[in-house]
Model the fold of this input.
Amino acid sequence: MNNLDISYTRYLDPEGQVTTELPAFAQEQSKLIELYRRMTLARRYDGKLTAMQRSGRIPSYAPELGEEAVRVGYATAMKKEDVLLGTYRDTAAMLVRGVTIDEDLMFWGGDERGNVFAGPSEDFPLTTPIATQTTQAVGVAYAFKLRDEKRVAVTTIGDGGSSKGDFYEAMNFAGAWHVPVVFIIINNQWAISMPRERQSAAKTLAQKGLAVGIPGEQVDGNDVIAVCDVVSRALENARSGGGPTVVEAITYRLTDHSTADDASRYRDPDVVSAHWKNEPLIRLRTYLSESQAWTKDDEENLITTIDQEIEDGIAKYEAQEDLPPEAMFDHMFAELPMDLKDQREAVLAEFSKSEENGYG
Amino acid sequence: MNNLDISYTRYLDPEGQVTTELPAFAQEQSKLIELYRRMTLARRYDGKLTAMQRSGRIPSYAPELGEEAVRVGYATAMKKEDVLLGTYRDTAAMLVRGVTIDEDLMFWGGDERGNVFAGPSEDFPLTTPIATQTTQAVGVAYAFKLRDEKRVAVTTIGDGGSSKGDFYEAMNFAGAWHVPVVFIIINNQWAISMPRERQSAAKTLAQKGLAVGIPGEQVDGNDVIAVCDVVSRALENARSGGGPTVVEAITYRLTDHSTADDASRYRDPDVVSAHWKNEPLIRLRTYLSESQAWTKDDEENLITTIDQEIEDGIAKYEAQEDLPPEAMFDHMFAELPMDLKDQREAVLAEFSKSEENGYG
Amino acid sequence: MAELTMVSAVCQALGRALKDDKDVVLLGEDVGVNGGVFRATEGLQEIYGADRVIDTPLAEAGIGGVTVGMAAAGLKPVAEFQFMGFIYSAFDQIISHVARLRNRTRGRLSCPLVIRAPYGGGIHGPEHHSESTEAIFAHIPGLRVVIPSSPLRAYGLLLAAIRNPDPVMFLEPKRVYRTVKQEVPDDGEALPLDLCFVLREGGDVTLVSWGAAVAETLAAAETLSGMGIEAEVIDVATLTPLDMPTILSSVEKTGRCVIVHEAPYTGGFGAEIAARLAEKGLLHLLSPVLRVTGYDTVIPYAKNEHRYLVSENRIIDAVRRAVAFPEEP
Amino acid sequence: MAELTMVSAVCQALGRALKDDKDVVLLGEDVGVNGGVFRATEGLQEIYGADRVIDTPLAEAGIGGVTVGMAAAGLKPVAEFQFMGFIYSAFDQIISHVARLRNRTRGRLSCPLVIRAPYGGGIHGPEHHSESTEAIFAHIPGLRVVIPSSPLRAYGLLLAAIRNPDPVMFLEPKRVYRTVKQEVPDDGEALPLDLCFVLREGGDVTLVSWGAAVAETLAAAETLSGMGIEAEVIDVATLTPLDMPTILSSVEKTGRCVIVHEAPYTGGFGAEIAARLAEKGLLHLLSPVLRVTGYDTVIPYAKNEHRYLVSENRIIDAVRRAVAFPEEP
Ligand SMILES: Cc1ncc(C[n+]2csc(CCOP(=O)(O)OP(=O)(O)O)c2C)c(N)n1
Ligand SMILES: Cc1ncc(C[n+]2csc(CCOP(=O)(O)OP(=O)(O)O)c2C)c(N)n1
Ligand SMILES: [Mg+2]
Ligand SMILES: [Mg+2]
Done:
């Protein structure tokens, strides 16, 4: 079998001990505290969304428990003018990018207006059909290159998604066209019930880039410093004309695939528990505490502030006006074609008849 | 950039000189003569088909001038019970497999009966939609494995086709399922007007296998001994449970992409002429002559025999009864559904009215 | 005998097929240990092994292609696509090969396979989980498109589909996966393909439907009966090849027809049925052929979905317009 | 001014668009140096550069996806799929994203792109080079499906498609790429989308067609005129959104309608038009709505292809049946 050579980056081990000298940005404690804050927001909000689904307040949700470091890390590495094309599990990254909680809640609540985020106004909405975002990212990157803009398209995909032909085609286009795009494979070891080992005979997922001649590397996806560092370098490389990179971030899905899933059907709870010792928040907190940069009080204050932020977001979400019935017509085209007018009228007539005070 | 390690096999160089000790089978001159005969048949028949298209006797054809060694080599390496899933350019391989000239002519003549070859009755017909045959090959190989049959599915694809997601998915399935399939990338340097270098940033196409954890290697596709040898080994490995392999055979398309193409629009005729010195027949003929195993007379006799064989095939093809009009209905389903009966009647009525003696 | 939901009836049919025919294999994402995200293959891997109930990598074009290869090589694969919204990557295989292999090879090779996919809205699923694109498949010569609307028909039609020597698209209306239960004996009896099922007789109007919308159609028929309008209700079941004789003879009797489906209006399969009536049944039509369907919009996310789906009220309105024609009801 | 074939008119429109709007880019397999396998982009790379007339790797799903990304990022990409038979790998992008991005984001992002594909049979191409699957696209809400049938309409409609802020599937009937020439001034004038073109007036029967079959339809109309039957001929041009008012008012006048298309009968877009007549024009119909179409079979390889394609004779037969109805002609 052919030899390969794939690098793996980690700075903080699961016990919060530094294994290699930290990169420059991580020498500033304020930066690390901000990363910690972002991960904590992700964790708390994730728990809230899961709870809201359980109590019927939103129809479905794809949790990211245990995977916060990857998303916070890469989103922090991005510049505002870069463009993100994520999957359905990239909520934490969207928050870092500037999507507000009420906007995000609308999405999960089943309202298209949740995709109208003003913050990162060129970012794509979360994508359901797996891997389709990756070729789109190449198109976005092509536009950047053509217009000579120093911007990068960032796209994510799961370990499962990395089996899809679209992803391969995306990498190949990116390599052939040498455009500024970074592919982040978020390897959380599971694609619903399919474990990583059975998804592909490839020893690493980073080596997928080799098929198309673009560099691939691995990073400890539970080490937010490492993710941020590796992605920053890939971004700078792309921004300065160095072309695309594939980054495989290795993490672990600590919970069900989605609120419709029951992972206990297909994986051993003991193995899952064992993975809790690798989860990303503890290690950064330990490091910060041991560096005297974080106290119990800080932790409590942070959680209080974040929970309030979340509650405020929920309140704002719940105060939104309901979607009008005709909304389903009004954004299909820049201008509603004549042929759809009757249908729109019919819907209006039906629901003005039967609904007195809007959607209930 | 990551390091890779891809082997390249060649036994005979373009001048017909042995560069490495020949493999066992090639020590027998009769075997080499048979390979030479097969390549010569391919060359002569290819010229004939091209001429027939020019004179309007068949509507289109995809020539394989210069690429005979790959197809003759891999098809010779296959066992009868293996199954081939080729592209539109694999005519030479089909002849080796036992498809007759009249059957093949029917295909190119625009008659579905050309796909009813009795020889290799489980082989797939030539495939037009690029790369779709590769995932099918994995399904065939899966059936072999499930039934515990010692057979291998062989599938080919072009350098252009190797960019398609289907091919990647096929390799990934094959790796994950460890099924007996051999992927042969026939890199003839061009996909219509797209040169290999712009198709992908990958330095070799063999390394495409690495993305999915299956071995990849290169072979001189104009050295029929090398192709036969490398593919034989891959086949034996697959047959004995060793799993899939990707073989990149490097050759050169010496003529137009198809009879509808005009390659002078996009490539330099001088470069093409230079490639004539690498073409596969000369080097084997030189080697055989220099080994005193082949004379001018042998050559003349061979060509006479082959040309006769081709003429006989054409005569048989032309003696075929015309396709009846209703043929388009009669193989859509095992049994014609009620709902199609009227349509079939209509066609029969229309063409019994207007055509007195069949298709003209 | 226990009563089964439609999804359990599907599972029972799959188990039966695996048991009866060693060439039958199931494949798809999460169909193995997990038993499918809807549990349509629950417990089957345990009984028939991971070689015959096969978890695939996440790659739909690949699933399409390997299924073709398996079928041509003598197996009888039943592939599950997790949702119809994710089947599109397999279109090339479905259109270019599944539907054509027999014809291309004049029967030398064939594609005795079944492609299963849950389809339709109404479960408050995320985007792309609510598609109804059956009309696309129904336009591809060489495919059979079969849609059950009850546990019994799911069992009988799925067995028929698996035993059929040609490819079948078996589309399962997931909205009714668990809404009704029926006694479904595991007797291995298939139901006939290529025939409509007349679910209710009536002389005033013909209601033609399939899939999940059959439920609202039947409910509307009951309500209409209370209003003195007797509707004949036809479940098309096999869209293609279409059993037009059954529909035609009903419309010859009633003179009026309302077609009900969840898919968008324009180019939905309802158009084909209406068009055939305009061709073959014109002299019998006493009123316009009406279609009660989804709109020509993307099916909305959960919050607005109920306003898109066909409702009993919309069916009743249409029937009353048809019956009153040319007056307004 | 030189007369242009349809394919040259396409090329002229593309050149015009590249010249007028720096955001326009072309991409596809062999569209660059080679100028496209049909020469629809001939010479354009030389003028506008390899950055704007872009050869892609051989990967249709990828072409679909990068086109979406380009469009959302502010370019106006025009993607060529070499033949309609190879577009299926891009379906996921077309159905899941092209048709939906505006709606999903309530207009925050959009897809101002054009997807071009030569389609239809009659050129004795190999298998998979002769597809007519326009009905599939016409069933997808959010897409415009536009089909020119002459050099002038190719030029004007393609410019309109490129300037349209929403995605357009622009399907070019390759059988007539070079059969007629017309003067096509490069005046940058677009033709209106979403409207049918009445190509010939007549009071006895309405012939509705699009694409290559318009040629046989017009020829049939001439022949019929010699038999005393005056046909109105409508080129639908934009299948969706459909301009039903133009068709309806013609049928209100003639009372008879024959629809002609090359695609298979069942579920072809002709069904939609016939269905709408059965709904909105019933009282005006003096005879069954007939469809002259391809059959529900795979379009045959070259040798039998002419027996599949719609012929002038078949159209004439159908019209005579319609006009004679209820008698046999
Ligand atoms: C094309 C496609 N196929 C199937 C699905 C259904 N599905 C949703 S998530 C999922 C597993 C994805 O696993 P992975 O890519 O590892 O991402 P993760 O969910 O672990 O983040 C599947 C099969 C889908 N959304 N899209
Ligand atoms: C899916 C698909 N896309 C496009 C085509 C049109 N086409 C036919 S051959 C060809 C180039 C193929 O190049 P390569 O794979 O290198 O094979 P070669 O023709 O050189 O043998 C193209 C684009 C096709 N047949 N199938
Ligand atoms: Mg995963
Ligand atoms: Mg090639």
